[in-house]
Write a structure and sequence with these properties.
The structure holds two protein chains of two kinds.
Chain A: H1 8-14, H2 17-29, E1 48-52, H3 59-75, E2 79-83, H4 90-97, E3 105-110, H5 126-129, E4 130-146, H6 154-159, E5 165-169, H7 175-186, E6 193-197, H8 201-209, E7 215-219, H9 220-228, E8 232-237, E9 262-270, H10 275-289, H11 292-300, H12 310-330
Helix pairs in contact in A: 1-2, 3-10, 3-11, 7-12
Chain B: H1 2-11, H2 14-32, H3 38-49, H4 54-71, H5 73-79, H6 91-137, H7 141-152, H8 154-158, H9 163-178, E1 180-181, E2 188-189, H10 195-198, H11 203-221, H12 239-261, H13 267-281, H14 294-318, H15 324-334, H16 342-347, H17 349-383, H18 386-403, H19 408-426, H20 432-455, H21 464-489
Antiparallel strand pairs in B: 1-2
Helix pairs in contact in B: 1-17, 2-4, 2-17, 3-4, 3-15, 4-6, 4-14, 4-15, 4-17, 5-6, 6-12, 6-14, 6-17, 7-20, 7-21, 9-20, 11-18, 11-19, 12-13, 12-14, 13-14, 14-15, 18-19
The chains are: A alpha/beta, B mainly alpha.
Keywords (chain B): Membrane, Transmembrane, Transmembrane helix
Protein name (chain B): C4-dicarboxylate ABC transporter permease
InterPro entries (chain B): DUF112_TM
Chain lengths: ~325, ~500
Amino acid sequence: MSVHHPDLHRRVLAGTSLALGAALIITACSGPDQQSVQAEEGFPSRSIDVVVPFAPGGSADGTTRQLVAEAEEACGTSFVIRNETGGAGSVGFRSALDSTPDGYTLGTAAIEMSILEHFGIVDILPERDVQGIIQYSEQPVAIAVPADSPLETFEDLQTSENDRMTVATSGTGSIYHLGFEGMALVAGLEDRLVNAPFDGTASALQAAMGGQTDAVTAGAAELRPFVESGDLRALAVFGDPVDYFPEEVPTLEELGYDWDSTAVLGIYAPAGTPDEHVEFLSDCLDEARQSESFSEYMETTGLNQVHRDAQEFDAFLDEEYDRYGEVVREIGLVE
Amino acid sequence: MSDWLIGLEAIADPLVLLLIVCGVSIGIVVGALPGISATVGVAILLPFTFALEPIQGTMLLLGIYGGAVYAGSIPAILVRAPGTPASAASVDDGNALARQGQADQALKVSVLGSTLGGIIGVILLALLAPVLASFALGFGPAAYFMLALLALTVVAAVSEGRMLKGLISGALGLAIALIGLDTIQGFPRLTGGSPELASGIDYIPVMIGLFAVAEAFLQFENRLGISLKAKGQRFSPGLGWLKKLAPSAILGSVIGFIIGVIPGTGGDIGSFVAYNEAKRAARKDRRNFGHGDIRGLVSAESAKNAGTAGALAPTLTLGIPGDVTSAVLIGAITVHGLQPGPALFDGSPDLVYGIFIGFLVVYLVLLLLGWFGSGLWARMIERVPATYLWPTGIVLAVLGSYSLRSNLFDVMVMLIAAVLGYVMIKGGFPLAPLIIGMILGPIAEEGFRLAMILEGDLSWVLQPLPLVLLLMTVASAGFALRRELRSTAS
């Protein structure tokens, strides 16, 4: 698998002097002659960097820190976390993917890796650039309405006299936005529901609870406290049922629609990382994932543990890339 | 009343008090370093709190929060380099005082203002928490847009006498804020295909370059000329001094608190708005504002720390964070299986009322540490020869802008901003409007476009809250215009 990106050079030209310097170093490290890195005897012999593409304090950051703390023993080395944020994760993804694929630089994966390219924000093709290592969490997207809304069930969205309803999402191109658009397409709601892209999930929830929008889509775990307190009413889950929602909340599958949408968390490496290292990391991170204290952490933060190994996770990111590409084209967000 | 006793009991624990002192001390250090904000300090220590009781962990983080938001003003006053964006409004008056040899007094005004703002803020928070929840929820995109417009009129106050240049500076800030991903449709804007520009230009490296490094450049130029630093004078406060400060401090606290309650805006603009109002309230006697007026300084200082208490209102009552730092705080509370929201008040009064009382204690500790520290910091800066001070400042600026998100691009942005700042100072352009424009531009744009999506037309302008804010904006702009016309006529 090649790690050389032809249009890296184009960007270098457009870039500035500092970016030029940095990009030259990157190109030198992953130049065209270097098809893949040789597997190293006795890997890992030094500490491993993990790039978290989101700010400290969020679920990606918190779970990564907890996972690698458990993994120090299982993997036999220490981990160094770097938060490189910006561009909906694209800055951090790009940084990890441009590093030497020797197993010493990993990144925290989020579903945005399979989405951002469709918007022309960053050139990441999961199939070409990304080597999945492990997925440790997955949570479905769900749609909810304010407690005082006349909408009682999912069907009400389709039959309501109001034929222009606004749905708060955490931003255009986010998983909660595309999960919503995909649902609207299969349920024939694309003309009735309007995306209102807020700046993050917290703002979207605030807007829905304040009655500024008719509905909100967000991760089921993020909706949970407000559904439990009675401020919001969940109408449908876009994936497997979750046990903390009332029993009557259906999944899209139960409603007869073929669409699911989940936010995932995992660890990946740049493509070209030797198979031996990928397998080693996948196994020892899985051991850390199953530890008691990691499971406890995931439970208290309300995140589901759903495991995929290296091959499954890699394939999953590729499939999601194709699925969301179709949604983006159908709703006409990009030409 | 019994809830308050439960809270007091939770705080009256030697370990909690020790953690508060630790938190405030850590906060002062991280806040004083440019680029390392309260958020970073809180996030780094968050995992440590998982092992503590909820109230212990929360108090450690709140100590850092209060300390860091205060301490951003120490470098702003001493070397014109605000440690956090909320301190940018303190640069003009604070540093002018320092140059007149009044660094000690300026630092004491700062710590007094910050403490008072914090305490008034916490009291308002404790009394009004349930009402504030519905206020914060009612604040929709239309109101955000109008609030941003109102705050933009502050540009007039910080550029009095050179209005045109102030407006140019503010427009430049708005233009810089346009770069990056369009938040509504998600396409890259003015990025020239560069992925670094796609994530937008962060205003913190711009602020560091514009204020701290541009100032260092100027100092190099003046190296052989006259020293701007007057001999430092020790300062001891009197009753008249306190009387002069009180009205501006109270006004600043209330304004800072209200703006802090609105999720997502926080203290960064609260301090500018408070400064604007304090200046207007001073009427005829405002000639000295911007040139070392302690009332201007205290209003900005009290507003930024009152904002920390304000930001806790939506955090505790709704579970919706008021700013990035309180988002981390929610993490610290939820990890213990507690959920911020109305249920927290009934279910865990020890935590909620403990936070109220503990946050008061944070500010009392801050008053002690800050008051006795102020003389020390002023003396330290005075002892360092300028030939070492300013190069050190540049090194810190590079480190600070890099550490923000481990990105070399931010360092470059900081250096370009430094050159821009130098040119602007030489040309007589005020710097603050540029930062104000960069902060408010995205809030205004997103608010306007979301309001159009939600309503489909311009009818939102006539909703009560947006309309009130619009009238205030018109009045504020009108006053500024009249003032400017009068001063040019006379």
